[in-house]
Design goal:
The protein is of the alpha+beta class and 135 residues long. It has helices at residues 45-58, 112-123; strands at 33-37, 41-44, 64-67, 73-77, 90-98, 103-108, 130-134. It is built from 2 helices and 7 strands, in the order ββαββββαβ. Keywords: Ribonucleoprotein, Ribosomal protein, RNA-binding, rRNA-binding, tRNA-binding.
């Protein structure tokens, strides 16, 4: 998985407010089980990648695992003990904006018990609350 996008119109965006529910990406398309967020927040690349590795660890190669989010927003941060002013800070992290209802991972599998165990271990790696959804 790529860590950041190749090109953006502007590199540093304003942060905005992360409120409200998601009306896009809130239903299953490719798989029959999904990990859905139930609170808002940000997920960075390291969290998404560690959850993906824990999912792969629980499944064999014939199951389809899809990631439906991508870290495309930049968070900036100024160094410690720097005075106010002098412009926006340097790039600190690339994150994905998560709203309640967004499907984070999808799995095409038949055994619900293995899926339940895999999603529990993946949700432990994320900083938001999640739940399992299915068709």
């Amino acid at each position: 998985m790529k860590q950041k996008p190749n090109q953006l119109k502007f590199l540093k965006y304003q942060k905005k407010r992360n409120i409200g529910n998601s009306y896009k990406r809130n239903y299953l398309i490719f798989g029959n089980y999904g990990l859905k967020s139930i609170e808002n927040g940000f997920l960075n690349f390291k969290q998404i990648e560690s959850a993906r590795k824990s999912l792969i660890h629980n499944f064999n190669n014939n199951n389809l695992i899809l990631i439906r989010i991508f870290p495309d927003k930049v968070l900036t941060k100024k160094p410690l003990e720097v005075r106010m002013g002098k412009g926006k800070g340097a790039i600190h992290d690339w994150v994905s904006v998560i709203k309640p209802g967004i499907i984070i991972f999808e799995i095409k599998s038949l055994n619900f018990e293995i899926v339940k165990k895999a999603f529990f271990s993946a949700s432990q790696k994320l900083s938001i609350k999640t739940e399992i959804c299915y068709e």
